[in-house]
Amino acid sequence: MEIRKLDVTDTQAYYDLRIEALRDSPDSFTTRLEDAIRRPVEKTAENLALENAATFGAFADGALCGNVTLVRNRTPKLNHRASVVAVYVTPGQRGNGIAWRLMQELFRFAENWEGLERLDLMVASENLPAIALYEGLGFEKYGTEIKSMKTPEKYIDENLMVKFI
Description:
165 residues; alpha+beta
């Protein structure tokens, strides 16, 4: 298992994994599958090159099987904060500690990002495995965003979690 920061050479693999994530776990992400499919792959390359973000990938047998992204806030009063987003591991690789390892790599990166003090994330309140992972990594729930997302079938509440570094 290789865990590393993704770059523009990983664009197609990351794009494909993102589409898989939106098909597999649509209630876990704010992006809709149909919007992601319409988005040019070049936008994914642009996102991987952003200076205020870092995406980490897990590779099993050379194939990208998991990812996590850290996005730092650019606003001066909020620059001490970054958001953990787009966490996903393919169903066939779940239960192998990949998400834990991805988050550990993200923490190492975050600890060396000058001035960064706080990591925030939002997780669907019904996603108990993800909540357990985040709590095990030291995140604490500080609130719930009621009806945070809306699908044609239902509303989805999200837990607001924080970890100070």
